[in-house]
Design brief:
The structure holds two protein chains of two kinds. By secondary structure, chain A is mostly helical. Helices cover 76% and strands 0% of the residues of chain A. In chain B, 33% of the residues lie in helices and 23% in strands. Chain B has eleven helices and twelve strands. A six-stranded mixed beta sheet of chain B has the order 6-7-8-3-9-10, sandwiched between helices. In chain B, strands 2-1-4-5 form a four-stranded antiparallel beta sheet, covered by helices on one side. The longest helix of chain B is centred in the middle third of the chain and has 18 residues. At the A-B interface, helix 6, helix 7 and helix 10 of A face helix 2 and helix 4 of B.
């Protein structure tokens, strides 16, 4: 059986997303919310917020992970793990409110808050991905003569990728949804029609923001990187049974 | 020739190896045997610098192994462990090509070598594109051996290579290993905790106990030594030794049934002789190894 290419699902979801934005924009073009912007404009802002927040979260997550790898097991590792959990437990709305005096209104506070929100899942994905590799395989790689750099790129990273990738996808999905909160502090994105809809008790307006946001999240969730990689055995088994 | 000189290694307060010295004869199979925790795996890992000793040194052909970059040393020492050690994201061909690729051989040479090795371990060429999870334990272990032989290293280090296999597959692979070794004549250092395997595969036996070298000799010369050696080898050692003797094979080798197999047949048949399939009568006297070994 010939299977669909990897790019098909994300492309279809994305096409659905674009069509939905254009469609909703066509009959709700005179948005009731302030400042008045067209839906494609909001879609672009939302994408920027989500991806920007992802980068803001990925940098400290990678930093924490590298520190922990350098430190090895022990006190520091547990401490760093707790730091990453702490970033997850702070409610995003509260964080936003706290950030306003520091970062003002607009895109910066929401980027910072979402970035912090993204640290934990990304750190956990990195940590879990690398820890999922059996110790024997690592020792074998060294025993066969991989130097540490070759081992990282040719053995560890490809084997960590399934778990890592799942974490990246989940983070993108969560950030897409959480980015709608940006409207409460004056940032753009699909939050703007949702907040306006709540204020004016207009479910259509809420849907105008919520539906495209959900489609964007599903498009992110459909991203996959490989069918022959290390998760192929798992998939093959699943298909057979 | 590999020489270990006064090597000691501690893990915290625990002594893993205590002043061990021995020479591994070139072109022969030396078994590192001992109960778990005896230090046999540690000693194997010291040979390819996965573990650094606290004191003492290791030389290969007179050159201290610390004078070499660890990665380069390891590429010259074939490395086989239990079948779980294949890289799951590499195909069989990529697994076998590991060391040649690390040595940056040109692609045509790598391909030719991979094809040669897959023939040598008697796997069909169609296996080259499979992934490790598609292989049986025995097939995976053959790939493991082929991978270790990748760049034709003079030395093979093997840590319980047949440990995770079912008994039937294990016996078959042990036979294949002996046939392969008869062709290749590598210096093999093999860790096992099973005496039967040690006696079947080994030219020499190094017995380790609690980090020290109890004895190093041919299996035949280890009998009757008494003390801890005898405790380790067990009461049936003389009987087990008979499995190394093949009275029907024209040249020293492992062809045909062993004295032990024939003895079992005699006892089962209630006669001091047995008629083989080839029509030859073997008597009890034939079972006894004669030449001093």
């Amino acid at each position: 059986m010939k299977r669909a290419p990897l790019w098909l699902a994300p492309v279809l979801w994305l096409a659905g997303f674009v069509l939905l934005v254009l469609y909703l924009d066509s009959f709700l073009a005179t948005g009731l919310f302030q400042p008045r912007r067209r839906l494609p404009q909001l879609a672009w802002e939302h994408l920027q917020l989500t991806l920007g927040a992802f980068v803001f979260g990925a940098i400290p997550a990678l930093g924490l992970f590298l520190l922990q790898r350098r430190a090895g097991p022990g006190f520091l590792k547990g401490f760093l793990h707790r730091v990453s959990i702490f970033t997850e437990t702070v409610p995003t709305v509260a964080l936003l409110a706290l950030l306003i005096p520091l970062a003002g209104y607009g895109n910066l506070p929401i980027l910072l808050a979402l970035g912090i929100y993204g640290i934990f899942p990304l750190y956990t994905a990195l940590d879990g991905g690398f820890r999922s590799i059996p110790r024997q395989i690592l020792e074998n790689a060294s025993g066969l003569g991989f130097n540490p750099r070759q081992r990282l790129w040719k053995i560890e990273l490809p084997l960590a990728l399934p778990v890592l990738w799942a974490g990246v996808r989940t983070t993108l999905v969560n950030l897409t949804a959480a980015a709608t909160l940006g409207a409460t502090v004056g940032a753009g994105g699909f939050g703007a029609p949702i907040i306006a809809g709540i204020r004016s008790s207009d479910p259509l307006l809420i849907l105008q923001g919520a539906l495209p946001s959900a489609f964007l999240a599903l498009a992110f969730d459909s991203l996959s990187y490989s069918r022959t990689g290390p998760d192929a055995p798992v998939r093959a088994r699943r298909l057979r049974s | 020739m590999i020489e270990v000189l006064g090597v000691s290694k501690n893990y915290g307060a625990q002594k893993a190896l205590d002043n061990v010295s021995l020479r591994f004869p070139a072109g022969r199979v030396t078994i590192l045997a001992g109960p778990s925790g005896s230090g046999k795996s540690t000693l194997l890992k010291i040979l390819n610098r996965l573990v650094e000793p606290d004191s003492g040194r290791v030389t290969i052909d007179g050159v201290d192994i610390r004078s070499q970059v660890p990665e380069e040393l390891r590429r010259s020492l074939g490395w086989v462990i239990q079948s779980t050690g294949l890289f799951p994201h590499f195909t069989v061909a990529e697994n076998i090509a590991t060391v040649p690729r690390l040595l940056k051989w040109p692609a045509p040479r790598v391909d030719a070598r991979v094809a040669q090795l897959v023939d040598l371990v008697r796997l069909p060429r169609s296996f080259l594109t499979k992934y490790p999870h598609e292989l049986s334990g025995g097939e995976a272990q053959r790939v493991g051996v082929a991978r270790a032989l990748g760049a034709d290293p003079p030395v093979l280090l093997m840590d319980e290579p047949f440990g995770s296999l079912d008994p039937q597959t294990r016996l078959a692979l042990q036979d294949e290993f002996l046939n392969l070794q008869a062709q290749l004549k590598k210096t093999v250092i093999l860790v096992t905790h099973e005496l039967d395997e040690a006696l079947k595969l080994g030219d020499f036996l190094a017995l380790l106990d609690q980090g020290s070298l109890l004895a190093f000799d041919t299996p035949e010369r280890l009998q009757g030594r008494g003390g801890r050696i005898e405790t380790f080898l067990g009461r049936e050692y003389e009987l087990k030794l008979l499995s190394r003797h093949h009275p029907l094979s024209p040249t020293p080798g492992n062809e045909g049934p062993s004295s032990r197999d024939l003895l079992v047949e005699m006892i089962a048949g209630g006669q001091p002789s047995v008629l083989t399939a080839a029509g030859r009568t073997v008597t009890f006297a034939d079972l006894i190894p004669k030449a001093p070994q």
